[in-house]
Structure formats: structure tokens, C-alpha cells
């Protein structure tokens, strides 16, 4: 009986020693993000000239009407404060009825300012894998883009960008996480 207990204890210790905690993945630079192709309906738009990898590794599409500005230049020029962020529920890319007026205001602004463009930047809270959150941020940005397009805005004036959870606060409170699940509207003039 004692031999069985010692054998089980030894096997448990060996199994415990070989399992360990996995290392937490390194958070990449926030500029190493996913740049979406803007409005798509199953196929790539013919307004693309090329796809370029910028020096920082971020993917940026070149379009006739956007030029070939780097991601940093576009974001640096952007006005982040013109519109409130569009907030989302946990693990959702559906636009709540309470958030639609913000998108309507953005569409009205774009329709009355034909030279203005908009980057829709999707964000997530820290829960979930980095890959999943980048994809969720992209879905949120595309959902907002699709809504704006239904308001008569030319899709070539819109871009999507996913930050995923790259700017999220780890261990944030529920209230903080609710504010991180968003799409920010960056106006380029």
C-alpha cells in the first residue's frame, strides 16, 4: 500500500514538473496592426493600386485617393476628437441602436465634406488571444464602415484598422473594459 502511494506521489510530481506555466506572449508595438481593405463585398475593390509593407511592418493599402502616406502619417494627421467612439458589447461587432447616431453624424460630416476621409480603428479589451482580438477589432471596424456606407458615403473614403487589444489595460475593471470595446473614428482632412 505504501509503495502505491509513493509511486502515485512520484508520478504526480514528475507530471507537475514537466507541465509549467506558459510564458505570457509579448505585446507587439501598437503600430504593428492589421489594416483592413475598407468596404468589401466578397471581392477586393478595384480602387487598390498596391499593398505595401511600411518600414514598421504595418500593412497599408495604397489607393488613388489616399496616396501612399505611411500609417504613422495618417494617424498623426487624424482628428480623433471629432466624434465619440462607437462602443460595443463583449465579444460582439453588432452596432447597438444607441451608437448609431454617432455613425450617422460621421456619415453626414463626410457627405458634406467631400475631401474628408475616415479611418475606423477597432479596439478590444484585454480578454482573449491577441489573434482573436485583432480579428474582432477588424470585424467591429468593418461593421461600422458598412453602416456608414449605407448612409451614402463612398467606400473609397474609408479605411479600417484593427488595434485589437494592443492598447487595452490588462486587469482593467469592468467599466474600463466596456470603454475599450470600441471603434474610434479618425477624420483625415
From TrEMBL:
Family matches, as PROSITE patterns: OMPA_2 (PS51123), PROKAR_LIPOPROTEIN (PS51257)
InterPro entries: Bact_OuterMem_StrucFunc, OMP_bac, OmpA-like, OmpA-like_sf
UniProt keyword annotations, A-Z: Cell outer membrane, Membrane, Signal
Sequence ranges assigned to domain OmpA-like in this UniProt record: 75-189
A Pfam family the protein falls into: OmpA
Top-level lineage group: Bacteria
SUPFAM superfamilies in UniProt: OmpA-like
Primary localization: membrane
This protein's name: OmpA family protein
